[in-house]
Amino acid sequence: MSIVTSIFNFLRFNKKNWKAVVLCIFAATVFWFFNALNKNYSTNLNFPVTFDYDQDHYVPVKPLPASVRMNVTGSGWDLFRRSLGFKVPPLVFPLEKPSDVRKIVGTTLPATFAGQLERLKINFVITDTMRIHLEEKTGKKILIRLDSAQQFIDPAYGLLTEPKITPDTIWVEGPKQRIASLPLRVELKLPQRNLRKDFNEEVELNFENRDLIDAQPRSVNVSLDIEKFEETSKRIALDIINVSGRLKQGPVVKEISCAFRLPASLIQTFTDDSLRAVIDLKNMPRGEHKLVPQIFGLPAVARIVRTDTVIVNF
After folding, report:
1. Is the separation of the CB atoms in 205 and 221 below 8 Å?
2. Which of 8, 80, 168, 307 to pair with 176, CA 20 to 30 A apart?
3. 166: pLDDT confidence band, cut at 50, 70 and 90?
4. 3-class DSSP state of 54
5. 101: region left, alpha or beta (phi > 0 left; psi from -120 to 50 alpha)
6. Pick from 229, 167, 221: which is nearest to 195 by CA?
7. What's the pLDDT score for residue 46?
8. Are the CB atoms for 110 and 82 separated by under 8 Å?
9. Is the Cα dihedral 60, 63, 67, 70 positive or negative?
10. Does residue 11 lie within any of the structural domains?
11. Residue 214 exposure: Cα atoms within 13 Å on the Cβ side
């Protein structure tokens, strides 16, 4: 009982006693830990890996493997440092002909990596296969266009001038097959619709597999001069040209009606003195034809809404 009592009295709450106990435990733990790290062990570790190839002429089609898992033997210190990733340089796998290699079998890796692992011995590679896919890098010019700009504009509005795209040509680089599949002309899509005022913004270019394609630049400036259009109609003298002797029934009207839309700023100043409607019968085949006259003399920004038709019979 005296021994138990003595131990109990020693462990009984006393700041000096407990401090001594904690220090002893800490010292023993540190001693054990450092002693254990001096021994050799075998374990499985992930090693970062990088590939050495001509990056100016080749590009990965899919992300390259970032690591390889191997069973290695080494001192506890080296394994501990590797497991924590402290100042661990990646293993380098050289690729002399990158586009010819699609997979790397794990059993072939020790010969390449053995000389790169300081104080560690490779027992075996756990990673079965590393799959890679690199292609030759190529590039080409692509034209940027904005067709059917009216689809982005409110139906009551229109363009005063042709859309302006700056720059109208870009340079793209990437894997050979991806670049070859790109068209020589790309149609822009504006981020807004039903526009009612001038548009002047940077528009980002969207490509499939954009993470594999480097476009310079990646956006272009699009400028649209937009104004409200108003509809008006005019009676226009009809002119028939290249009339054939085979004509059985000609037009009985001397003028036709034409409705068109103009910018509001031109409605008041526009005159119809220069307007004329023309039907050209050159090379017209036999039979009855319902023809739409060509209208000349309208401003370039005008949009014809409807025009009377004329029937002729050969």
Report:
1. no
2. 168
3. very high
4. coil
5. beta
6. 229
7. 87
8. no
9. negative
10. no
11. 11
| Residue 172 counted as domain residue | yes
- The CATH number covering residue 189 comes to 2.170.120.40
Residue 14 has pLDDT above 90, yes or no: no
Taking only the tens place, the pLDDT of each residue in 268-310 is 788 888 899 998 888 888 878 888 999 999 988 899 999 998 8
Q: Lay out the sheet containing 67-75: strands in order across.
A: 91-94, 40-52, 67-75, 120-125
Beta strands in 146-196 (DSSP E): 157-159, 164-166, 169-175, 185-187
Cβ neighbors of 304 (< 8 A, separation 6 or more) are 258, 259, 260, 295, 298
Whole-angstrom distance between the N-terminal and C-terminal Cα of the chain? 136
- Token pair 């034209």 is found at 143
Cα–Cα distance for residue pair 5/7, rounded to 1 Å: 6
- For residue 279, the domain's CATH number is 2.170.120.30
Average pLDDT estimate for 147-152: 88
Spatial separation of the C-alpha atoms in residues 163 and 142, rounded to whole Å: 18
Residue 168: both structure tokens together: 């109208």
User: Exposed (0-12), middle (13-18) or buried (19+): which is 139, by Cβ within 10 Å?
Assistant: middle
CA distance 218 to 15: 69
